[in-house]
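Support case: user asked for a sample of complex input and structure output to validate their parser. Sending the pair below.
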Amino acid sequence: MTTTLVTNIATLVTNDPAAGEGPLGLVQDAAVVMDGDTVAWAGPAAHAPAADTAYDAAGRAVVPGFVDSHSHLVFAGDRTAEFNARMSGRAYSAGGIRTTVAATRAATDAELEANLTRYLDEALRQGTTTFETKSGYGLTVEDEARALRIAARHTDEVTYLGAHVVSPDYADDPAAYVALVTGEMLDACAPYARWVDVFCEKGAFDGDQARAVLTAGKAKGLTPRVHANQLSYGPGVRLAVELDAASADHCTHLTPDDVDALASGNTVATLLPGAEFSTRAEWPDARRLLDAGVTVALSTDCNPGSSFTSSMAFCIALAVRDMGMTPDEALWSATAGGAAALRRTDIGRIAPGARADLALLDAPSHVHLAYRPGVPLVSAVWRRGVQVV
Ligand code: NIG
Ligand code: FE
């Protein structure tokens, strides 16, 4: 196995409190040694062990590769017209999902996969080394299963979201659609997925329907995650905690009881500021969640409707500017927080034994991700120890 030394790092974010300062485990004048696909050593450059090859970080910052724990990347078409209308004053509604469903059903497998890899490459260039993605734009047994089959070729973090909205084919009989999602569609999809998700929202699925979807998925070995409390108050967050979901995603409209539930359980609150940005909605209150002791993740929600960004750095900047997070908290949530939302300990940190996923920033510290919004600061990326950017 070849070892590689990345040295002359001005600021290293390890997310390993034992290795450095604060929750980010910050080390100044640092180095990292990778052994094959794994981190072998991280610490002060002066103490770095020898390695086969060396890379000079030239006084810049290194952070763990971003963990994007929530995206919807198996789709076709785009919704420019809907975005344009929204920016002229129209409100966002979940109804736009059906536009993408029609385009996705009409696309070939090759078209869907080419679209997926295009956005994955785009995300990788911006430092995302792990991503989760979902079905939800097929809404038939065949179309949901093929979305997951295609996604599973590119990531282990695949989520079955047959319950995105009621299929237009079942507009008159939502109960029959829930029966399909919890029956034949689940049987066809479960082999490709690790997670089951439901959009628990007015106009999508209510609390009872969401519970049916999540418990059926659990019985098939899938772990729940929930689109919860995005557009309005509702039962999604409490249901997620009750069913020990890995994450409750969006969390924009929270009562004190919702916050207490998140603080008392194992469910991560995944905040998706790209959605509030692109729908001109009110921001989730990250400060309130952090002060209550909730684990917070940040993700893109990349999808053609409500949040068409693949940039974790953009989400960090929004979270710092508009959601009350410090730059340190936002960086943690976009890396270690995302790993927690995926119940992973091998990613989101740069520590011995972790996967060698690193992003080099063209900046002296991670704070520049928020301080220099919109600037493409990621200048090199290693994924599983291989330099891919
Ligand atoms: O997470 N909320 C539901 N699903 C997506 C939106 C999907 C769409 O508009 O196409 C979301 O924001
Ligand atoms: Fe989403």
